[in-house]
Amino acid sequence: LETVFLSRDFYSQASVGTHIKGPVELAVSTYRKLGLNEAPGVPDFNRATGALGQTLFRPPTVAGWAGGRSWITPGLLLERGNFARDLLFPDINFIPPDRRNGSREIQSVARRIRDGLDITTATQPSNIGEDQIMAESNMLADRDEDFNTRYGSFRGWQMAIEKVKPIPRHTARLDFSGDVLQQELTSTTEVVDYFIERFMRVAPGADARRMLVKFLNEELGTSNIEEAQTYMEDALRMMVHLLLSQPEYQLS
User: Fold this and answer.
1) What are φ and ψ of residue 198, in 5° steps?
2) Which domain holds residue 184?
3) I need a surface site. Which of 15, 76, 114, 142 has the fewest CB within 10 A?
């Protein structure tokens, strides 16, 4: 690896920008470029990379993931932009997936037991209301086949919540305004160029660059950073979201 990383060919124009980042690589490299020392818990790492087509330790086949251009479709490119948005503008309604079970049946059992119902009633199918009566034949079949499954799943999740250490959760600590002021940037053009150099291995085209400058000017109401330094954080984050949504950001 040392020989590869010290090779001039590794950093040549013929090599740069020829690799499409996989979902996990995209997420981790974004964290690093944002200056984060650890992965934030919001958005959830596994849920975010899974939406992009890659869940660690769960490849689609024994051969792993196809990679390359298979990572990019119109829908997945949109999801990659959504990942950047969720990182820059965290969802205030976020519920940790490791703390809440999404199964309707388990939720139904938990709710009924909490309401004081007996185990037999609590473990009836979730589509059976408390005042509804199952046919005797169905009741016997349900008792034989699903009672232990429903109650066992409920108890499993209950014990997991009690004993399993939760994943640390926090949002990304970002201060783009502070970065811009520390760099002593004076215009929106300089700001856009700074973030392009910071985040992009392959710079976007001239049209995209002009679009980013125009967008930032409109959001700030000025091209003078000194005039906007007290309120520019959200505008900077929106501009960076647009930048990280560009096709060129998917390359390394």
Assistant:
1) -75, -40
2) 175-252
3) 114
| Burial status of residue 90 (CB atoms within 10 A of its CB: 0-12, 13-18, 19 or more) | middle
Residue 80 CB coordination number (10 Å): 27
Neighbours of 248 (CB within 10 A): 16
123 with 84, same domain: the answer is no
Amino acid (1-letter code) at residue 201: R
Whether residue 168 lies inside any domain: the answer is no
